[in-house]
Amino acid sequence: MNINKESTILITCSPGLVECLQTEVEALGYKTFNPHKAGLEIKGTIVDCMKLNLNLRTAFNVLYLFKEFQSKNPDQLYRYLVSLNWADVISEDEYFTVVSRADNPSVKHTMFPSMKVKDAIVDSIAKVKGKRPDSGSERNNVVLNFYWKDKNCWIYINTSGNKLADRGYRKMPHAAPMQETLAAGVLLTAGYDGSMPLVCPMCGSGTLAIEAALISINKSAGLLRSNYGFAHLKDFDKALWQKMRKDALKAAKKTLAFPIIATDIDEQAIVAAKQNAKTAGVDHLIEFAVCDFAETKIPQAPGIILLNPEYGRRLGDTTELEETYKRMGDFFKQKCAGYAAHIFTGNMNLAKKIGLRTSRKTPFFNGTIECRLLKYDIYEGSKK
Ligand SMILES: C[S@@+](CC[C@H](N)C(=O)[O-])C[C@H]1O[C@@H](n2cnc3c(N)ncnc32)[C@H](O)[C@@H]1O
Fold it and tell me: β-strand 260-264 against 286-290: which pairing, if any?
């Protein structure tokens, strides 16, 4: 297949992250269009998809539009897809999977569209090559996303394969970890770019601190992963991919300009965070400590402090948490002067206990839970 052919690229993200994603995509030099709740579009090639997979921190999947067409029912769908030259896209020795979402009256069973698409692709390849590729539900090889709404159909090559949130470093998840893409989005929204200290008390498995270290040294998140959907396509340009990775490695700095401090009251959380940071190759860049959040060392201002406390839905008892949230407000006032203080929480009632006025509230989703990143400007002395 021609990896330099331009098409629409749909970049998906979790709800709440689209503004961060847009900033990231535009910083890479692309013009974005059609931003919606969970994604946006650009124009580009498979080579652009490789670059996006390597560099984006807040994206879920990078989907290259292969065909847009119309189909009223499964028979029409099969007839159209079997007529395409799939042998040019997927080797007969490959394995592929189809992920589908359908909203069409002829679809009674959710698995049916995926099966129909798979059958058409396998038959099309077998006709040309005399051999049928394997297919199933694993997402480690070629992945196709099929969407069917009324009679409109879109089939995308999912160039990411597994979602980009799975960076591969979180071998020890600990309790209620934040998704890696969400952690990156929260940091970017807090304005973190490595140009001032970052303090992460309540670090849990270390996701925020690890993502911060990657941002600070300009290390592409995609360098942490070796497998992508695009690498299984026919005509994958391995030499070009290796050059992209080499250039990204060269662009990464070795040291931090300002410290990153990560603490947690639970010793096991720090064991997990250290191990995860090691897997991500950034353990030497983060200062870890076991302590109550209020005992965390605060470097000289200005800086950013970011806490992700439990919020009583999945973990923690609400009455005890009320006291913790109140203590967080006191801690900000007493020890964090000159800092931009942030709390990421899914419980606005608990947030009221902080007792400080927010300067910004940014909505996010942690899975299905609606959350807010609350910002408090803690002034040195009294606010004029
Ligand atoms: C929601 S989890 C943080 C998850 C983290 N963002 C991650 O990605 O793994 C909250 C963390 O706060 C810690 N914690 C609770 N009370 C604390 C306290 N008083 N001082 C410090 N850490 C505390 C818990 O041990 C837990 O690891």
Answer: parallel
Ligand 1 shell residues, CB under 6 Å: 174-178, 201-202, 204-205, 207-208, 264-266, 269, 292-293, 308-310, 324
Q: How far is the CA of 199 from the centre of ligand 1 (A)?
A: 13
Residue with CA nearest ligand 1 atom 26: 204
**pLDDT tens-digit readout, 367-376:** 889 999 999 9
Across the range 305-328, mean pLDDT stands at: 86
Neighbouring CB atoms inside 10 A of 177's CB total: 20
Q: Is the pLDDT of residue 107 over 80?
A: no
Identify the helix (H) or strand (E) that includes residue 335.
helix 318-335
| Burial of 244 from C-beta contacts in 10 A (0-12 / 13-18 / 19+) | buried
Average of per-residue pLDDT values in the chain: 94
Q: Which domains are delineated in the chain?
A: 7-158 (3.30.2130.30), 180-218+255-377 (3.40.50.150)
Residues 6+ apart with CB under 8 A from 15: 37, 38, 365
